[in-house]
Amino acid sequence: MGKLVRYRTAVPGAWDTLLDLEGRTYVVEDSYCINPRCDCQSVILEFYEAREGTFVGSAKVSVVTRRAGQFDTAIARMLWTELRKTGDLVDGLETRWQLMREIGEALVREALVPLPTLPTTIDELADRTPRFVTSPDVQGQAARKIGRNAPCPCGSGHKYKRCCLGKNVTP
């Protein structure tokens, strides 16, 4: 699998997928390889505790079989099991995967991005993603909160509270 791009980064305005388990709410982020030369058919699901924004685990899922092959934590396995019961995101994985591939092909076709730099890692995107919590790396480091008076991470130069706080958008 190549480098990954989050669905919400490529499709601004996409809704968060929320999941409740044992009295806690979790956010599910799905990331895809958009390199049209890559033949992978997997998605990486990252799970974050919604209130604190802390990373709790991830799962590698096949969009063809809709089965997870790898988990990095026990909580990720439990959240995947719960997510399969709801069916919301699981049913749409293949559609999202195809859309992400089309976006990658369009970027290359229109020469908007040269192929060697087309995919961007999640860590590289975190610096430009206006979110309540910056994305931690997949090893589970704690996320840091963006202060209301801090510069907005979207790069506009405005304060976070006057720019992207409360908005469900990504650049």
What is the residue-mean pLDDT, rounded to a whole number?
75
**Gyration radius, to the nearest Å?**
16 Å
Give the DSSP E fraction (strand runs of 2 or more residues).
15-25%
Distance between the termini: 24 Å
Main sheet overview: 6 strands, antiparallel
Overall number of strands: 6
Give the helix tally.
Answer: 4
Q: What fraction, in percent, of the residue positions are helical?
A: 25-40%
Structural class: alpha+beta
Runs with pLDDT <50, length 5+?
115-143
N-to-C SSE string, H for helix and E for strand: EHEEEEEHHH
Q: Give the overall silhouette.
A: flat
In short:
This protein is α+β, with helices and mostly antiparallel strands.
Q: Would you kindly provide a written description of the structure presented here, covering whatever features stand out?
A:
The chain is of the alpha+beta class and 171 residues long. Helix content is 26%, strand content 21%. The protein is built from four helices and six strands, in the order βαβββββααα. The chain is flat and about 45 Å long. Mean pLDDT is 75; it is low at 115-143.
Per-chain topology:
Elements: E1 5-6, H1 7-10, E2 17-21, E3 24-32, E4 42-49, E5 55-62, E6 68-71, H2 74-86, H3 88-109, H4 122-126
Antiparallel strand pairs: 1-3, 2-3, 3-4, 4-5, 5-6
